[in-house]
Every structure is written in structure tokens, then in C-alpha cells.
Write a structure and sequence with these properties.
Helix content is 55%, strand content 8%. The chain has 172 residues and is α+β, with helices and mostly antiparallel strands. It starts with 6 loop residues before the first helix and ends in a 19-residue tail after the last helix.
């Protein structure tokens, strides 16, 4: 069965804010194919369903940091209020508030994306624990091997393109 929305697309929209994995109201609205103001209006009509651990509103510094991080775009422009961010539980609650077939299907895909992220984090932590145990068990002769494996486990650093004019090397 083909997913309604690719999991990779959803995973890219999951952000870490205040130590919580969250999704922004505008990103959720685009996935649900509703206007952001309609999503927020539905949430405000049912505010008792969204306690502090389900939803938070970004403060001005967090919002500016997001705008700086992602660059200024039309998605962020023209907002009269600071965006809301929904935790996994808040996203689950949205399907009952929006009450549409698409909202239910999209929520299923979002829940799967959150589960995949949790599994990846858990498996990486488990692998790290096993590496530490092996490292303690074997002597220094394998230290080089363990260091190399740890480097492979680390996320790659993004390659930066050189900006500006570059003088060509002589002989070319």
C-alpha cells in the first residue's frame, strides 16, 4: 500500500524545540491541505484537548531563530501571531479536532514517522552501549578499530561550498 505522504517528507518537518520533537502549525496545515488559520481556529475551539504537553506557542526568539535557520520565505511571512508547535500527542489529537478523512490518514503517516525516529534513536543508543561494552572488554590494540567505527556512526558534517571568487591554479 502506497503512503499518502512520503515518510521522509514528514520526518523533515519534525523539529526539536524546547527539547521536544514537534511539528509546526503551518507544516501540519499543508499536510492536511487546510489553511493554517483554519487549523488554529479548530484548535482554539477545542483548547481543552491541547494541554501544555500537547502544544506550545513559540516565543519571539524561537520564531526568529526558525526564520533565520530556514531563511525568509512566504511561508513565514505575514503571520499575525507566533506559530504553534504540536508534540506527537498534539498531532494525534488534531485528527479528532479536524474531523476529516484526510486528517486521519495523514495522522497515521505522521505517527509512523515519529515511531521511526524513536526507533532510530533507540537503535543508535543500543549500538553505542554495545560498542562501549566491547571497548572495555578488549585491550588497546582494538582502539583504532573502535575509533574508526565511532566515526562511521557519527552523522556526516555537511559539505560547505566555497563562496566567492576562487583563483584558478596555475597550469590549468
Amino acid at each position: 500500500m502506497k503512503a499518502l505522504i512520503p515518510g521522509e517528507l514528514i520526518e523533515k518537518k519534525i523539529l526539536l524545540i524546547r527539547g521536544e520533537k514537534v511539528m509546526l502549525d503551518a507544516d501540519l496545515a499543508s499536510l492536511y491541505e487546510v489553511e493554517t488559520k483554519m487549523l488554529v481556529r479548530a484548535v482554539k475551539r477545542n483548547i481543552v484537548r491541547f494541554p501544555a504537553d500537547f502544544m506550545l506557542q513559540l516565543n519571539k526568539d524561537e520564531f526568529e531563530n526558525l526564520r533565520f535557520h530556514f531563511g525568509t520565505s512566504s511561508q513565514w511571512g505575514g503571520r499575525r501571531y507566533l506559530p504553534y508547535a504540536f508534540t506527537e500527542q498534539g498531532v494525534a489529537m488534531l485528527s479528532s479536532v479536524l474531523n476529516s478523512e484526510r486528517a486521519v490518514k495523514v495522522n497515521i503517516e505522521i505517527m509512523r514517522a515519529f515511531v521511526r525516529l524513536r526507533q532510530m534513536l533507540a537503535s543508535n543508543a543500543e549500538l553505542s552501549r554495545k560498542m562501549n561494552a566491547l571497548e572495555k572488554k578488549y585491550d588497546a590494540q582494538f582502539k583504532v578499530v573502535f575509533d574508526a567505527i565511532r566515526k562511521l556512526m557519527a552523522p556526516p558534517e555537511p559539505k560547505r561550498r566555497q563562496i566567492g571568487f576562487c583563483k584558478e591554479k596555475e597550469g590549468k
